[in-house]
Fold this protein.
Amino acid sequence: MSSQQILGSDRQYDISVVIPLFNEEKNIDLLYDKLKVALDKINRRYQIIMVDDGSTDKTLSVLKEIHQRDKTLRVISFRRNFGQAAALSAGFDWAKGDIVIAMDGDLQNHPEDIPLLLRKIEEGYDVVSGWRVERKDPFLTRRLPSSVANFIISWVSKVKLHDYGCTLKAYRKEVVDNLRLYGEMHRFIPALASLMGASVAEVKVKHSPRTHGKSKYNLFRTIRVILDLFTVKFFLSFATRPIQIFGLIGIFSSLVGFILAVYLSVKKIFFGHSLADRPLLLLAILLILMGVQFITMGLLGEMLARTYYETQKKPPYLIKEVLD
């Protein structure tokens, strides 16, 4: 089911709050109570969407109990654990608010910070990211790897944020409507949004230590984030022109191989040197073949890019406004 089929044509709420959950049975009741208090103070139409990402504890049972008390709560349950990106994506698809707020379900994000995000959005920004200035997590296993990842992501994407890993973010609905999240791509939403021309800002938010449940983050997940960064960089720079990256590598490789081949030919023809025991000959052949392969990959990438856009009738641009 597409997001357009789910959403229909009209917005029903001012704000949608999307919360992915995985084994958070002890946090949900208190989170729900705090969220209701914070949202009621804002005095806007809102909806709460909680996505159970295949929990193995009593998370879904607790959600069903809350739903019995509050029928306006939207509960989405996955058949198995698909990951936070998939849970956020499902929540975004079902969200019907003009502004979508995403936050963690472990009580480390504060619902009271939601008005800060909304005020920043009202200044004209499309994405507002939370910055956990005083982060209450272990230094070696959480904060240090996160700082390194934030620096690398900011350097590669050119979107300068202090805290990409903070789930607490606010988005205009038209931004998330055009996002497709896989792997750990939810961390790169500000970078992906900037690709569409969205304006991105950051606000300082509070952060609390986890009191119940177990963190799902570890050093291995940081490595996965770095690997997904390669995908983001490709989409930011070469999604619609893959021949420019693969072709450039191919031409350079072929040129170096050709120069080596000419050098060896001169040595053989004019100086009578034997090439049978020269590893340089094998390197020249390898570089030329690699160059041909990279250029071919670039051409195939161009064909795939054109197929992607043309079969979906999806233009390689997004229009913000039309004055007529």
